[in-house]
Design a protein that fits this description.
2 domains; four-stranded antiparallel beta sheet; five-stranded antiparallel beta sheet; alpha+beta; globular; single chain; Arc Repressor Mutant, subunit A; 18% strand
Length: 271
């Protein structure tokens, strides 16, 4: 069992929740806003929104307060050790940094956290080694998101058009009729240019990104509700359970049922 990593997949907190300023002398803190929003109230007031990730250096005081009408839900990790080069890239002295995640990145953060939670509480051989690997994967996910957010490859106006199309894909990805050409029309760019700049901004093709969005939607359904594989397929934008199962296995190496069994075990420890 790993003694220097703690994972907390928290229940939703109410709209009047707050936490007084506090610090963790020996731990770094990394957390994802899974749902809702709130304020970091100390040392400087900053707003946290859904799919934001924040990193708190050890010894830095920080407090929180919800801002009605919403509450907030966090996934929180505390850890003591990290490779020095990653610490230098992730932690900015005494500053609490906030990173903006896409829906795909946020769902991957959740998956890694579930895996970490399982391994941290495991007595199986090599669980501490696997915990360290998963923690490093999560930190790399944050650093890549930060690089994407800070590396502007297009003129601002064109980048805003692509980001609007991406946001629209997120909102409608579970609609089976949605196609990449719909997103192209939304952006108002030529098909070939849209595909080129999309890959520059996101790091993958529009088709692969849409497939990943639908797979992430399917994983959220399987993690958060008791649904059949057929229901999951039809509610996450696939035209048949067969297409869903084939695509899911192609991207994850597991069938949906295998993936669901692996993750339901972790969810039970949350309740």
């Amino acid at each position: 069992m790993s003694q220097d990593i703690e994972v907390s997949i928290q229940s939703p907190l109410p709209k009047d929740w707050s936490m007084e300023p506090h610090c963790h002398p020996a731990y770094y803190e990394v957390a994802l806003v899974r749902n809702g929003s709130c304020l970091i109230t100390h040392p400087l007031e900053k707003r946290l929104k859904k799919n934001n990730v924040f990193c708190v250096p050890h010894g830095v005081s920080h407090g929180f307060a919800c801002n009605p009408p919403t509450g907030v839900q966090f996934v929180v990790l505390h850890f003591q050790r990290l490779r020095s080069d990653l610490v230098g890239d992730l932690i900015n002295d005494d500053t609490i940094d906030i990173f903006r995640f896409t829906e795909v990145e946020a769902t991957r953060f959740l998956e890694i956290s579930f895996g970490l939670q399982r391994e941290v509480n495991s007595t199986l051989p090599y669980s501490s080694h696997l915990s360290d690997l998963l923690l490093h994967e999560l930190i790399v996910l944050i650093l890549r998101a930060n690089k994407r957010n800070n590396h502007h490859v297009l003129p601002k106006e064109q980048e805003e058009l692509v980001e609007d199309a991406i946001k629209w894909m997120h909102e409608h990805c579970c609609d089976e009729s949605l196609t990449i050409e719909d997103a192209v029309k939304r952006a108002g760019l030529s098909s070939s240019y849209f595909r080129k700049v999309f890959k520059q901004v996101v790091g993958s093709s529009p088709k692969r990104y849409l497939t990943q969005l639908r797979l992430q939607a399917s994983k959220r359904l399987m993690m958060e509700s008791a649904v059949t594989i057929t229901e999951v397929a039809l509610r996450s934008g696939f035209n048949s359970p067969q297409q869903f199962s084939k695509t899911f296995r192609q991207y994850t190496g597991l069938t949906p049922s295998e993936w669901q069994r692996n993750n339901i075990v972790v969810l039970d420890t949350e309740r």
